[in-house]
Amino acid sequence: MSDALLTLEGVHTHIGAYHILHGVDLSVPANQLTMLLGRNGAGKTTTLRTVMGLWHASQGRITLAGQDITARATPDIAQSGVAYVPESMGIFSDLSVKENMLLAARGARTIDDVDTKRLEWIFDMFPAMKKFWLHPAGKLSGGQKQMLAVSRAIVEPRQLLLIDEPSKGLAPAIIQNMIAAFRELKAAQTTILLVEQNFNFARQLGDTVAVMDDGRVVHSGAMAELAEDSALQARLLGLSLGAHQ
């Protein structure tokens, strides 16, 4: 796809003796939100970690904005404008919300160096970040920690966000807040590759979708088409999105 920001071509990943990815082909269009779906153990998290350079592809090619990043180190990929929000969120529990945000703003030495308008934009999406600005991050609720993890990823403009299961374990009201925030990010033309198990979340947000099984992408296309095709949902995922609305 000519409008793809990120492409994976025939990507294999081994972790020790285990062969996890078996020739992943994936295209992530620029300025869209691509959902990466599949059963547990299908290879979704490994795909994100391989893009981020945390695990290296043993075969195949990964390109970002036309540049080959297959063998690059994680700091170099981050410097290229890629942010990764792992399932574990990866926040620093002993540091305040403010200190967590400052660490994520690579070009800032003090919080005064961070773009004030961008911080206000983040506060509008996640008011809890402003409310608990000076509180230790470890004292936040699970939903607030997830908000902080996403806020850190967007404290500076990024080319690409890689986000692993942002709704996992969250209360329905917090999930709706997260959906609203991702809609804001989409409106700002942020390119996002998002792994998710909550299919209602996926249906509401995805522009495009790729479904993985056994370390391969077995389906890709428009999210709306998958959301409307119960037979395809059952075949690919073993369930219907409609049952999770």
TrEMBL record:
<dbReference type="InterPro" id="IPR052156">
    <property type="entry name" value="BCAA_Transport_ATP-bd_LivF"/>
</dbReference>
<keyword id="KW-0378">Hydrolase</keyword>
<dbReference type="GO" id="GO:0016887">
    <property type="term" value="F:ATP hydrolysis activity"/>
</dbReference>
<dbReference type="GO" id="GO:0015658">
    <property type="term" value="F:branched-chain amino acid transmembrane transporter activity"/>
</dbReference>
<protein>
    <submittedName>
        <fullName>ABC transporter family protein</fullName>
        <ecNumber>3.6.1.3</ecNumber>
    </submittedName>
</protein>
<dbReference type="GO" id="GO:0005524">
    <property type="term" value="F:ATP binding"/>
</dbReference>
<dbReference type="GO" id="GO:0015807">
    <property type="term" value="P:L-amino acid transport"/>
</dbReference>
<dbReference type="InterPro" id="IPR017871">
    <property type="entry name" value="ABC_transporter-like_CS"/>
</dbReference>
<keyword id="KW-0547">Nucleotide-binding</keyword>
<comment type="similarity">
    <text>Belongs to the ABC transporter superfamily.</text>
</comment>
<keyword id="KW-1003">Cell membrane</keyword>
<keyword id="KW-0067">ATP-binding</keyword>
<dbReference type="InterPro" id="IPR003439">
    <property type="entry name" value="ABC_transporter-like_ATP-bd"/>
</dbReference>
<dbReference type="InterPro" id="IPR027417">
    <property type="entry name" value="P-loop_NTPase"/>
</dbReference>
<keyword id="KW-0813">Transport</keyword>
<keyword id="KW-0472">Membrane</keyword>
<keyword id="KW-0029">Amino-acid transport</keyword>
<dbReference type="Pfam" id="PF00005">
    <property type="entry name" value="ABC_tran"/>
</dbReference>
<dbReference type="InterPro" id="IPR003593">
    <property type="entry name" value="AAA+_ATPase"/>
</dbReference>
<feature type="domain" description="ABC transporter">
    <location>
        <begin position="6"/>
        <end position="239"/>
    </location>
</feature>
